[in-house]
Write a structure and sequence with these properties.
By secondary structure, this protein is mainly β. The protein has two domains: 3-88, Beta Barrel (Elongation Factor Tu (Ef-tu), domain 3); 99-158, PRC-barrel domain (SH3 type barrels), CATH 2.30.30.240. The protein has helices at residues 28-31, 71-74, 99-102; strands spanning 3-13, 18-23, 37-42, 45-57, 60-65, 81-85, 106-109, 112-121, 127-132, 135-140, 146-150, 155-158. The radius of gyration is 18 Å and the shape is elongated.
Amino acid sequence: MEYIKVGNIVNTFGLKGELKVKSLTEFAEIRFKKGQQLYIEKDHEFEIVIVKNMRWHKEFLLVLFEGLEDINLVEKYKGCDIYISKEDVHALPVGQYYYFELQGCNVYENNKCIGTVTSVEDGYQTLLRINIGEKEVLIPYVEAFIQNVDVAQKRIDINSIQGLV
C-alpha cells in the first residue's frame, strides 16, 4: 500500500490523549474528520488509527484517536508522521495538484532540464524547492513563473527571470 503524509505529531496535549498535530494538507477538515482512518508511522511500521475527535488550537490540530484516550498511550507517537492511504486521495479540479504529485518533477527552462523539485513549501505562498546541481532555489508556484505542469510526465516548465535560478 502507498501512503501520503498528511501530518506530523509535534507533542501531546493535556492528559486525555489528544495529540498536537502540524497539518501538512490543505484538506485538514476532511483528512482528520471524526471516523477517518489514518496511519501513524512508528519504527517503520504503519499503525491504523481512527479519529475520535479533532479541533483547531492556534495553528495546530488537536486530534484524539479511538482507544487512545490517555496521555500514557500516546506519548510514544511524539515526532511520528500521520498518513492516509493513497487510495483515499480525492480528485482535484483540472490545473490543481497535490504537493506529493509535484515532488520529484523535473523542472525545465527553455526546454532544458535545470533541476528537480525536492519539496513543496507552504506559507504566505506556495514555493517549489528545486535542486539545481550543487544549490537549491525556491520558485514561487504562481502563474508568472509556472508555465506548464504535467504530473504524468513528471515535468514542470517555468518562465524564469534573471537571478531566479
